[in-house]
Amino acid sequence: MAGTQGIDRVQIAGSQLVNVMGGQFEFVMASDKESRVASVLPSESVKVIAESVGVSGLADEASSFLAEDISYRLKLIIQEAEKLRQHSKRKKLTCSDFDSALQMKNIEPVYGVSNREGYVPFRHASGGGREIYFTEEKEVDLHSVMGDSTPKIPVDVSLRAHWLCIDGIQPSLPENPPPATKELQKQEILDTSLKQTAGPNRLGQKRSHPDSSGKHKHSHHQKHKDLVKLKNLATHELSVEQQYYYKEITESCVGPDEQKRAEALQSLQQDPGLHQMLPRFVAFAAEGVKINVVQNNLALLIYLMRMVKSLLDNQTVYLDKYLHDLLPAVTTCVVSRQLCLRPDMDNHWALRDFAARLVAQICRNYSNNTNNVQARITKKFSKAIQSEKVALSTQYGALAGLGELGTEVVKSSLLPYICMLGDRMKYVNEGSALNSIDKIAAEHIKKQLIKYLPPVLKSFHNSSESVEEFNVAYGYLGPFLYSMFLQKEKGLTSAGAMQTLATPARSTLQLSQRPAQIVIQQPAPSTPGTPHQSSFLTGTPSFQRTSSISSMSNPSTPTGVSGAQKFVIVSQGRSSSSISSTPAASNSLMKMVGPSQSQGVAPGVGPGAGQKIVLIQGAATVKSDDSAATPGNQVRTSILTSSQSAVGSTATSSSNISGKETL
Amino acid sequence: MATTSSASEVAVKEEGSCQYDKQTLVAVLQFLRKHNLKGTESLLKEEAKVSEDDLKTEEDKKTEVSQALAAVYKSDDDPSLFEDLYQDLKTFIDSCLDVHKVELATILYPVFVHMYLELVFNGHQWNASQFYSRFWQDQDEHRHEDLARLTSVRQKEHMVGSDNQLLESFKTSKFILRMSRDSYTHLKRHLQEKRLSPLLTIVQDHLFIDVFDGVPRTQQQIQASGGGLIGEVDRDANKAKVLFGLLREPDVQIALDDEEEGGDGDEKPKKKKSKKDPLLMKKSKNDPNAPAPTRIPLPELKDQDHKDKALAFREAKKRAKLDHNHLPSICFYTFVNAFHGVTCVDISDDSSLLVAGFSDGNLRVWSLTPQKLREMKAADDLEIIDKEADDVMERIFDDRTASDFKTLSGHKGPVYSASISPDRAYLLSASEDGTVRLWSLQIWTNLVCYKGHNFPVWDVRFSPHGYYFVSASHDRTARVWATDHHQPIRIFAGHLSDVDCCCFHPNSNYVATGSSDNSVRLWDMLNGSCVRVMTGHKSAVHCLQFSPDGRFLASGGADSQVLIWDLGTGTMVAQLSAHTNTVYDLCFSREGTMLASGGLDDSIRVWDMQKIMAEQDTEADPSVPSNITINDSPSLLLGSYFTKSTSVLGLHFTRRNLLLASGPFEAPS
């Protein structure tokens, strides 16, 4: 009696085995070479099973003999189950295969064990050095079963027809796979060898429009194949449908209708079959940038960048081949001297930030040891930072570009040149020529610094350092950075909260960023000053300010594109469409804040709700905590004029630091 | 049915019935004895006059056989010697000239297997696993699967009994090798030097070396023909003549066609065309390779069949030309929401019906034309119909039952194969439950359940002339049935493992079967003998298809290869490898210039048959294996068409050469 029970248990063990293997069994026999040495059930398992059916004290010898034999029988049954799988034309072995195999051997199958696709009904638990597989049986609340609405009936099988191929050419239909998968596109690029013109290569399929003569390039190539090995000329003939699509998409992308644009951008982002049209789209974007930069057409530039963004987000295209067109265009939008007609009013900063993020995205996805994109880009940006002659707006862009590339890049390529940047800003702020454009630019640069520097500074300095050290290290910007740094150190809770609150979108970006992906070899930034211990807050006038700038916000674009098209506007987050609508307001506000004026701006002024961030500079009257603890970060504006008791070198800069953010 | 009388001649011959009864009696007696029913046993024995001897011999035979099998591996040799011996053999082969090396290397696999089994049998388990782990990687890649099965045998007890099919094949059959005389002499000399070694015993006991005169074969030739479970085929296996030519089409049909053509008006261009048509040329000539039309009794054609033929002929006129410049169009029928359920697909010859078998035992028939599926009217209603009316075939159907698809339920296990009869009146299905069922596509119900295979039936196919069908099963046999007999009329036994697929020759005189023993066999319907054995597949064969002219056979299998065989000589003509997973269906274009293959790798590949036929070396003497050239040029692949995530289970060329394909979509996990 015990014997037959034992066999039952063995069957269960068998079905357990097959279930556990179910997930991984796929062609185990053909592929798995390491585990080729025959495996045997451990004799302990046999003992446990024996005990569970009431046979205790099984001799070691007996159990090991049983284990051997059971393993052999199990393997036989699994071999049979394999046959059933093959004939069911599936890729995975299922429990029912195993049951049928048992039936074929005239053994009662194990009832009640089943698996759905890719689902192993046994859960694995380990602990105390033991590994256990067990079936998970959830308790079902009958009341809820009775009460709940009946689950949906699965959809019935149905038959659908489509053209897989017409006269040997696969049409681009949603039912067909994209002409070339990303991997294949990648392979094609990396593959420098001459291509076989004949069939086997999937990319070798000619995509030419079927012409009436019926003469395909295919046969043409074959004729020559034996004579010379020809590298395929990439023909870029587009079918009529594709041409139409191209026209529609490009028109919508730059047209006035925001709804249409959203659809077009979504199509660019999600359609799998764009591979063929990529060169056209990329050329369109590149040419568009060239023209519109000259014409200072900010809106169009933004549209084009959004288009590039969509292409970059498309999972099925591989843009490596088109970087030579794409990168200059995007970089132009980052660092161009002028991007709009009225640099003092228009929000070209947002475009720069957006484009900078695109550059970072390109670097992340396509930089490799062959093209060294990231290193080259970094070098360019770094050069712009170091240069004395370039426009401040360019420097702003470079700053954004470097910042987006990650802390390591900031550390190596930006930090060493902060002094130079500081001198430049000092000149702008204190210089005789009062150039409002430059001043605004300097303002924005500071905001950028606030955005990108704190994490880096933190790793360099500790809280006991004094402002002098910062002055030594960073020159003109020293005190500013120091206050920023202190802020970071001190208000980890409050200011930090603000910071995180202000950077929700940012965080996702940083997550996806590869840390320390540095290709360039540059001497480590010289440690600013000689770090020595000084007591905290001794005799030094404390500069306290709120960490202010919400570096990024996520305004929903007015047209309701939000979901699909995440166009994130950076800093002074006016949405792109409102650029022209509110310049007057912002302008006036800017002017209100003069160096020696103290003017309170009533809360609620300014377009839209959002955050108005406070900049406080001057005597240590307001603690950072206070302002940071502003209830709910609601709309609030307060301007605190710098008192006459000038604080160090920053006296004049106070006005610049204070500002207004409209979100 | 007028056909029945003529066809029943082929039915079971009655001569063996006496023997059959005796066997049954003996079985009953054994049953009685087993259950200790002595009274009945003696009574029955007396009554049936079965002597004790008869019973004994049956049992004795069994034990004798198993003893003999066991004794085969008995030896007293030192187990540690085996490793050295094998190593020695390897070094010897390595030291040979390159020409001989490749041929001699084929001996390594069987020697390895038998050495391992001998070690296991004599209880040297540790030595066996040592031996195995040292040398298994030397074996060919495609053998690894079998070797993995072999390692599960670890004790003497495992070798007793017959439930391990692989082991049994090794025990009972000799491993067949072919090599040139020069190589063989080399080997013989070496083996004789080691006269006393067990190596010689193994070679003598378990290997059959078929020696041929001629140049040694090349690596490619050996690779191509190797792979069978027990090696290659000896030269005598394929000696029989195969009448692969097509049967003459009945004259009535052509006359009918002329009428049709005359009606169309523009006679001249069509006649020109028809002369060019290779199929028409064949018909007018008398093919020397064609069997006599009466060699196998075939059902007579009905009026409806004549109409169908005429229609088919007219359709064929509009056929698209296919060659390497004119690639086919493919229309793909995807099953959605199938949830792994679809196990087989078949499309009727006139491309109007598609049937799919499901793993829950159901069958579902779809109409691929706007014509919906209708049921025949009830008997009472049929009474009133005017039987002389022209559209009587139309009137018998009930329009109220029209639907896009019909479901047929009856099997209690997954349906592994389905086949629609050429006249679209019947449907056959084979299932895991061991039965083959015949369904009517007019009253949409089960007509016959053919029970004969006791194990899952993997494949079933109608003969191109209807009436006959062949089934292939896990029980290692293929059986031919006639639809009106519940017993098989032929049983083809000979495969060493499951018969996975089967197919009728276009002239209905032959049946091809593919098996898990990696071989393809061709059987003669007339006398049930095996006329061709072809090895070359490295894994189970899952699909077979004859070329329309009957000369070539294409086979595809789990080794992702498609192989083309010449039935005249039984040699491999081409080896088509581009698939990356099991090939599950094959289809020739209607005029045979193109072959389409599809499978689990979600792709359809199209191959250039024209080129294969043009480049085939017909001059070479097939009796010398080294003369055979196998075409494996990559340029034979004309196109690869990928689906998104749909495996290709069914392929079908319409009469106008549009390729229809079908398979279930599976969302990639």
UniProtKB/TrEMBL annotation, chain A:
The keyword Transcription applies. GO terms for molecular function: protein heterodimerization activity; RNA polymerase II general transcription initiation factor activity; transcription coactivator activity. One of its GO terms (biological process) is RNA polymerase II preinitiation complex assembly. The keyword Transcription regulation applies. Residues 215-225 have a biased composition (Basic residues). It is found in: Nucleus. PANTHER family: TRANSCRIPTION INITIATION FACTOR TFIID SUBUNIT 6. This is Histone H4. The lineage of its organism: Eukaryota, Metazoa, Spiralia, Lophotrochozoa, Mollusca.
TrEMBL record, chain B:
WD repeats lie at residues 342-376, 408-442, 450-491, 492-533, 534-575, 576-610. It is found in: Nucleus. Signal peptide: none annotated. Residues 77-207 form the TFIID subunit TAF5 NTD2 domain. Keywords: Nucleus, Repeat, Transcription, Transcription regulation, WD repeat. Residues 255-305 are annotated as: Disordered. Its main location: nucleus. GO terms for cellular component: transcription factor TFIID complex. It comes from the Eukaryota. SMART domains: WD40 (SM00320). GO terms for biological process: transcription initiation at RNA polymerase II promoter. InterPro entries: LisH, TFIID_NTD2, TFIID_NTD2_sf, WD40/YVTN_repeat-like_dom_sf, WD40_PAC1, WD40_repeat_CS, WD40_repeat_dom_sf, WD40_rpt. GO terms for molecular function: RNA polymerase II general transcription initiation factor activity. Belongs to the WD repeat TAF5 family. This is Transcription initiation factor TFIID subunit 5. It comes from Elysia marginata.
